[in-house]
Amino acid sequence: MSTRIRPNVVTVTEPGMADVVTSQVSVRDLKTHLSEWLARAQSGELVEVTSHRKPIARITAVKHADSRISSPLQKAMDAGLISWNGQKPNLPPPMKLRGQQTLLSDIVMKDRG
User: Fold this and answer.
1) Per the domain annotation, does 72 fall within a domain?
2) Would 8 be classed as within a structural domain?
3) Is residue 70 assigned to a domain?
4) How many domains does the chain have?
5) What pLDDT was estimated at residue 28?
6) Which site among 3, 62, 92, 107 is 20 to 30 Å from 26 CA-CA?
7) Distances (CA, A) of 80 to 31, 59, 65, 76
8) Residues 49-83 pLDDT 10s
């Protein structure tokens, strides 16, 4: 196990876990360098926050959702069947019912009172 020490920061690398680095940071140093610590956590580093040299919290990267568990809408987007540019959709004009001159939306609104 190797350890690097900076003022208020301890970084520990566990043997056999080369891809996981744990860093301890005091609340004061975390508040001072929040963006730096969040970037380190986002890159996969486990950050332990300490208060008076006792761990009180951990900051880790958010795991991406499992691609096998997806909504039907996301599956259709992934398959290229539909696309969305982030804007409001352009909808066709309201539809008239066969044989009537009343719009379906008007019937629904009347029904809702």
Assistant:
1) no
2) yes
3) no
4) 1
5) 93
6) 62
7) 44, 36, 20, 6
8) 999 989 999 998 887 666 565 778 777 877 878 87
State how far the Cα of 84 lies from the Cα of 71, in Å rounded to an integer.
15
Rounded CA-CA distance 19/63 in Å is 15
Q: What is the 3-state secondary structure (H, E, C) of 16-68?
A: CCCCCEEEEEEHHHHHHCHHHHHHHHHCCCEEEEEECCEEEEEECCCCCCCCC
**Which of 58, 66, 14, 17 has the alpha carbon at shortest distance from 40?**
58
Q: Which domain holds residue 35?
A: 2-59
The CATH number of the domain holding residue 51 is 3.40.1620
35 within domain boundaries? yes
Answer whether residue 86 shows pLDDT above 90: no
- 13 contact partners, CB below 8 Å, separation of at least 6: 1, 2, 3, 21, 22
